[in-house]
Amino acid sequence: MNKLNLNSFFPEDMLQLTKVEQTEEAIHIYLKSKTKNCVCPKCGQSTEQYHGTYVRHVQDLSILGKNVQLHIKAHEYKCTNTDCNASTIAENFNGFLNYYSRMTERCADFICSLALETSCEGCSRICKALGIKTSGDTVMRLLLKRYQAMENDFMGDKIGVDDFAYKKRHTYGTIIVDEEIHTPIALLDGRDGTSLRKWLKNNKHIKVITRDRASAYAKVIAEELPDAMQVADRFYLHQNLLEAIKKALNHGLPATIKIPHTKESERERETGKKIAQDVGNPPNYSEKRYKMICQIQQLLKEGCSYREIARRMGVGRNTIAKYRKGDPKELSMYGIHQSKLDIFHDFILECLYSGKSKSKTVKSVYAKGYTGSKSNAFDYFVKIEQREGKTFEPQPYIRTQTETLKYRVGSKRKTADYITREGVFKHIWM
Fold first, then answer.
1. Please, which pLDDT band fits residue 30 given cuts at 50, 70 and 90?
2. Model pTM above 0.90
3. pLDDT single digits (tens) 219-263
4. Burial 185-223 (b: 16+ CB within 10 A, else e)
5. What is the mean pLDDT of the chain?
6. DSSP H helical segments within 131-204, as ranges?
7. DSSP per-residue codes, 197-209
8. Phi, psi values for residue 184, rounded to 5°
9. What is the pLDDT of residue 279?
10. Which of 22, 289, 354, 370 could form a disulfide with 332 if both were Cys (CB 3.0 to 4.6 A apart)?
11. CB atoms within 10 A of CB 379
12. Residue 205 has what pLDDT?
């Protein structure tokens, strides 16, 4: 019968298995050190002088869902270097257990791998179910420790610096991005420039730095790397220009500007008149229907009955009764002109073909007396486009300096309208 050799799961040249105990909740494995010397971590000198022994209690990977605790009887050495300030040296089992660690390296590797695929809190819950005792904070400390121990890759001489919020209005940090590979290379605490100053002292090869308008970053960069080129983001250049224009307008324009009324503006105020003469063109009508109505009325004058007229013309009696009286031109408009915009049809065509936009054409039609909705007006324009076989551009014209300004319309008794300085600013910027 084959037996499991537990010694093979531990570094046999450093540790020796002495005892194994099992309870309902955990498995306790007792080990003792076999080393004869130790290297001082401060001065690097090897020593063989014992100082004493102590027991280390560390956690290992679980076995079948049970927590595994290692109890290692380790040695403590004295440093023989008189110039070294280390009095005693704790034994280090390279690759298996580091200084002052509370878990083995393979256990820490498993936790970090799981945390990268899930989250710190999610990893702690999964480990608890597997029999490994840890918390979300411990997982986070492990990840940070391993990140700090990683070797920094080569980075270029162009970086971007910006701030970010761990929690808005409470905790902020600084992120540094390599502009050539577009990858974050460092996360620093705070945004006051202190941490950035320390980082720049260790990276003097930087030549170009893109940043926002934060004065703290600008001051630190100028002091630590005076020869480096500082580049402002496009958004902040626009913002600087915006503030300069606003400041110039504040000095050069009054808060309210008067726009005197003209004869044309006075005429456009009278929107109550909706007669066809305001349009400037007679309304369209169907020539075919006009001829049919004239023929019906002529036959009725000759004394023909409804049945006789229906037989001759091939129309219904209701149609004959509908057109028996009235002006043929007005009656011929029925069935084609069913919109409030029909009387403005030719005027709309004139505006659209002259290059006016649809929005501006709607305003002109409202000035002529149209009282319907804008959506109906735009639907009417679509029908015109289908009939004309042409698509009119929404904004084919070039705006003038004042035609898009939103102003406050004065009352009829006033001689001028008004526009605010803020309105002028928005028009220039937009």
1. very high
2. no
3. 899 998 988 988 887 787 888 888 888 888 788 777 777 777 665
4. bbebeebebebbbebbeebeebeebbbeebebbbebbee
5. 80
6. 136-149, 194-201
7. HHHHHT-TT--EE
8. -65, 135
9. 39
10. 289
11. 13
12. 87
